[in-house]
# Entry
Amino acid sequence: MNRDAGLANLFRKLKTILNLEGEYFSHSTALYLLGQLPSLPEHLTAVSHRRRRNRESLERPFTFIFHPKGKCRPTQTVPWQGMILPVSTLEKTLIDLVGDFDYSPPLLGLADLFATLPFQCGTLVNLARQSSDSALKRVSFLLAWTGRIEEKDIPFEVFTRTPVKLDPRAGTENSNWDNRFF
# Structure
């Protein structure tokens, strides 16, 4: 079986597992399905508003990530290999990545995504604002760091005073951001 047929079979299986309304592929899996990554990630992910068990019996590990029902939007359907798959938008994918660091690339890799992906900055900031204070701060920092937003366009007025850890995996104070650039 060639590689494309194998991937199509894998996603046919995954599509049958994603059977609840509102479930969608996200994180690096979504980036691959949206044509933004050249190869399928080693670990596949989907978001669900219900607690679901992960699957290890497929060709690659497949993890369901729980998000409350109100935070599972926006999504889109994407034609891929003759199937229609539910996938997060680019903006929602970035929100999921800054919120679920266990399934996110290291901070420099995340910054590279913010610098290169063709998303709408205003849409991303609005979606981050609806998500959480931490997501809004991380998104604002990464947009500014990569030159995609000007400092005057960062919604500092809605930030809480609490610093945000830009990468919770870092474990040091060096990744705290207190809303200042200088």
In short: The first strand starts at residue 24 and ends at 25. Strands lie at 24-25, 44-48, 62-66, 75-80, 83-88, 164-165, 176-177. The chain has a mean pLDDT of 87. The two ends are 56 Å apart (CA to CA).
